Amino acid sequence: MAKTLPKTDVVIVGVGWAGGIIAAELTKSGLNVVGLERGKERKTEDYFMVHDELRYGLRYEMMQDLSKETITFRSTEKTRALPMRQYGSFLIGDGLGGAGVHWNGQTYRFLPYDFEIRSKTIEKYGKNKIPAGMTIQDWGITYDEIEPYYDKFEKLTGISGEVNPLGGKRSSPFPTPPMKKTPAMQMFVEAAGRLKLNPYMMPSANLSENYTNPDGIARAACQYCGYCERFGCEYGAKADPVVTVIPVANKTGKFEIRTHSNVRRILHKGGKATGVMYTDVTTGEEIIQPADIVVVTSYVFNNVRLLLMSELGKPYDSSTGTGVIGRNYAYQVAKGSAIGFFENQQFNNFAGAGALGVSIDDYNGDNFDHSDLNFIHGGVIAIGQPGSRPIQNNPVPSGTASWGSEFKSKSVHYSNRTIGVGAQGSSMSFKHHFLDLDSAYKDVYGDPLLRITFDFEDQDRELAKFLAERCSKIVTEMGADKVDYLKELGPYDIMTYQSTHNTGGVIMGSNPGNSAVNTYSQMWDADNVFVVGASSFPQNAGYNPTNTVGALAYRAAEGIVKYREKGGLLV
User: Fold this and answer.
1) Domains in the chain: how many in total?
2) Can you give the residue ranges of the Glucose-methanol-choline oxidoreductase C-terminal domain (predicted)?
3) In the chain, which end has fewer C-beta atoms inside a 10 angstrom radius, N or C?
4) Cα-flanking dihedrals φ and ψ of residue 483, to 5°?
5) 51 in a domain, yes or no?
6) Strand, coil or helix: what is 9?
7) pLDDT per position in the chain (571 positions), as tens?
8) Active site residues
9) Where are the beta strands (DSSP E) in 215-321?
């Protein structure tokens, strides 16, 4: 029998960026908060002098143990889903701070078009521009409404950058200047200028200089060591929840973190949540934590799975298009890229930072005419210098033998003679792309695994080819002697890493007919439950999601305080 603990004001499920922000804001407002994190505790000291690519980059030290819990995948409903037994397409983080500890730090704002994509597309091109089966929708909130929360997140994290000439308006400048511009990045800027494009320095959560944020948290500048993605930052220069918001919540004395606590159900009665049930993974004991308000802030898949297992909200039915939990799963089209090989020029590719780069948005959103194109939206194009670590980076031109003396000699020759320009494309939602519970496979507790049904569409294939061709033109203009780029996008491959930017399943909207949460991330079906994260995205933009997740967390925290005072659904 489960043990029941004393009631708290708020219980948070998952203590990453969203959970950490909400914990800090609510405890500063005087609420008592319990944060449940199924992974282990983390601190900056854990990463002192630990530049271990094998341990973190290849053996996934910071990721979920797939032998205990994974997802199942199928490309269509006609095929059988099978479990993902080793990491490939995306990485699911684990532990205090979540993906906010092992991210790269690229912190883009979505474009104004992204929040009103359906209405703006129809307004400009007509209803027929949206193909049958595509289920994109407006968020219910505009860029202007979410902008103040973007500003808060950027000041919290000390984002280093410069104004995007094709982005939405800003209420204030970036908190810190852009990062250093390397010779390769300067070549990109000059080439983009000759092609009449609009380059700008990538917005970075790797600090360009020492910074103290509005909460009084001081952090040191980035050392350009090249160990960001899949790694914790030993300097604290890369913003993460462990060095920003969690200390603020802890300082109030009103926040209790319980690690190794795997939440398995949201308990509810009569349209209200009463708390959560979790398992202490160190003892196997089941524990009930009663709470006035439940906030779900774990990873996309975990948010959706927890709601489905808790029978909270109407599950999505792909045959009818009704229901909301699991609806509008989307990924990221991160295949449109080009790599240039230079015979007589070398670059220091091994130094860098996760968000060191230059971007252009000339082919993102609706910043270019789509009238004669067989897709909508687009993606950001960028040259990044995150640090080419030795095990995972071994570029050779196409046509090179995959082993033997030719492969070895060209690997050595081109190790510092390559420049990559990549595109991160948007991912539109479709009626037949969704998340649900698998009927065959279960986790170690006997609970069903989450199942993904997804494949690339003609929209994705056309978009990927378009962006890859644009990348190749830029690399050619930079002076590369040989350029390889994507010619065709094949089926979605869950075993090839592309992006960890999974979205949807608990989407945001203006009415309960086609969304699970309102614009404060409050569930329509249980007004004391707030679900925050990229699971809210009705479709995915051509950017990294973290800035938008952070902004939504600040808005949700504001909504929770309002709800605590007045109750009911927020407007």
Assistant:
1) 1
2) 436-553
3) N
4) -130, 125
5) yes
6) strand
7) 899 999 999 999 999 999 999 999 999 999 999 999 999 999 998 888 888 999 999 999 999 999 989 999 999 999 999 999 999 999 999 999 999 999 999 999 999 999 999 999 999 999 999 999 999 999 999 999 999 999 999 999 999 999 999 999 999 999 999 999 999 999 999 999 999 999 999 999 999 999 999 999 999 999 999 999 999 999 999 999 999 999 999 999 999 999 999 999 999 999 999 999 999 999 999 999 999 999 999 999 999 999 999 999 999 999 999 999 999 999 999 877 999 999 999 999 999 999 999 999 999 999 999 999 999 999 999 999 999 988 888 899 999 999 999 999 999 999 999 999 999 999 999 999 999 999 999 999 999 999 999 999 999 999 999 999 999 999 999 999 999 999 999 999 898 888 889 999 999 999 999 999 999 999 999 999 999 999 999 999 999 999 999 999 999 999 999 999 999 999 8
8) 501
9) 218-219, 255-258, 261-269, 272-280, 286-296
Q: How many whole angstroms separate alpha carbon 223 and alpha carbon 212?
A: 17
Q: Which of 57, 108, 353, 63 is nearest to 233 (CA)?
A: 353
* Residue 444 lies inside a defined structural domain of this protein: yes
Choose among 275, 300, 355, 396: nearest CA to 543: 355
Task: Please tell me what DSSP assigns to residue 45.
Answer: G
First-to-last alpha carbon distance for the chain, in angstroms, is 40
Contacts of 76 (CB under 8 A, 6+ apart): 432, 453, 455
Q: Could you tell me if residue 290 is inside a domain?
A: yes
Output the six-digit token pair for 77: 């409903």
What are the backbone dihedrals phi and psi of residue 111, each rounded to the nearest 5 degrees, phi first? -80, 155
Q: How many residues does the chain have?
A: 571
Angstrom distances, CA of residue 522 to CA of 223, 289, 293, 348, 512? 40, 20, 11, 48, 11
DSSP assignments along 207-258, one per residue: -SS-EE-TT--EEPPP--BS--TTS--SSS-B--GGGTHHHHHHHTT-EEEE
Six token digits for residue 277:
């049930």
Helix H or strand E encompassing 128: none
CA-based nearest residue to 131, from 376, 364, 455? 376
The tokens for 567 are: 């109750």
* Distance in angstroms (rounded) separating the CA atoms of residues 380 and 365: 9
Look at strands 448-453 and 357-360 and give their pairing.
unpaired
Would you call 451 helix, strand, or coil by DSSP? strand
Residue 571 resides in a domain: no
Range of the domain at 204: 3-566
Indicate whether this model's pTM tops 0.90: yes
CB 444 within 8 A of CB 68: yes
Residue tagged 């996934």 (tokens): 60
Q: Give the CATH number of the domain where residue 461 resides.
A: 3.50.50.60
Structure tokens at 19: 């959970």
